[in-house]
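Recall that a protein's primary structure is simply its ordered list of amino acids. Everything else, from secondary elements to tertiary packing, is in principle encoded there. The following example makes that idea concrete.
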Amino acid sequence: MTDTPDHTPTPEERKARAEAAMRAAEAAAGALDGRDAPEPAPRSSPQPPPEPAGGPEEGLRALGGLFAETGVPAALASRAMARLGPGAAGRLREDPWRLLSVPGVQPGQADHFARALLGEDARPGDPRRGGALVLHLLTEAARQGHTVTPAADVLSALERLRFPDPPRAVEAALDEAEVLSLTEEPEFDEEAFEDGAEPPEPEETLGPARWALAEEAAAEGFQRLTLTAVPLLDEAALKGLRDGLPEDRSLALTAALRTGVSILCGAPEGLARTVTEIAAAAASQGVRTAVAAPTDRAAADLAAAVPGGAAQGFAVTSLHRLLEPREDPSAAPGAVLYERGEQRPFDLDLVIVTDGAALDVELCAVLTEACPDGAHLVLCREPGAPPPAAPAAAGRSGGVGDRARRGAGPRAAVRPARRDHRRGARRRARGRGRPRTRGRHRAGRGRRRGGAPGRPARRRLDPPRSRHPGRGRPGRRPGRGR
């Protein structure tokens, strides 16, 4: 109906016309989308039942019923409950591949569970399966110490798992916000850069959001402590504390009191003694100091070994007690929250962690955020110390040194107690220090029986024979190998 000079539409008529036009446009768009779609949408899975109204007992009962229905061992229910929370049954009905996030579950087991639950709708190319596989691969890499993994490696691993469209799986994981994509600009030397050459492409890496963000927070915390630090004592006071100390302990004391972040390496006995000396010296000058051990028992043993005990003026406690853990029902399953942090930092000037190698990336982020601006942090590590039990131990080979690579200050090595090496020196002076080699053949200067010239000769384990004929061992020709 068109408007004429004799008829002017009322507001109600205009509103009705607009609604009719919108409905027609939506219908046309829907028809166009249906024509351009490559394949029909899969059948919708049944809606998950409502979450149990009770507490964890009701959730565990519902999860046990689901596992009994699909043939999953009942022993897995407690682990799935701890990882997915009281509503684990409903979450698994909605996305059965979430079972892959439970520790110990492998991709084949998660696929079996999905087929038992969804039947024919459990397709290999399901985006939910792809996102779960990506998160599983990144989590396994984090347990090996890699908080991020090159995207090319993830795509190759998905191909080995026979996922039809690996890039689609990565997109599905990114859409769930459980995985982050990070791009790091490559470093290159401008002077060695050839004219006309293309700069290297930035490398894309993927990482679980939980640990990738924690590592960024830890790196920023190390850098902040390094930039905001000032010497805790003046030069005269520091010189007075260094008088009479061995060179290694003097360097460790200087690094702790003059730089924001320092790393102290050495054997356990030497580290414990040096830590107590540094803490006692700093506390004697009015520096607020705390020593954090990995456990309560380790803190008690260290406090008992301190001469004078609490009279030294510094606190010795476990790291978790220093951070003041708190309970929060709204926290994610398995998460530990602390009172100390950016909003409520330590009232300390110097924090010494006796076992820095035991810091996982999340605890390291919490620790650096809890240190106020201007505070000094000392991380101790033992050569060859085992990695932390929690995932994402950045750099298994370097431990704390790799974790603090973006902001850590100097390193000090504590040497073990000296031993009397004079006897060994006298033996070497007389030529006895070098062990005697049996069979004086050298690599590349012999011919093995049946071998080619120039190959290393077989090592002879018998005593050297005489070079004179007739003085060799009976039954063997002099100068011949076996």
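Residues 32-51, 392-407, 417-482 have pLDDT under 50 and may be disordered. The radius of gyration is 34 Å.
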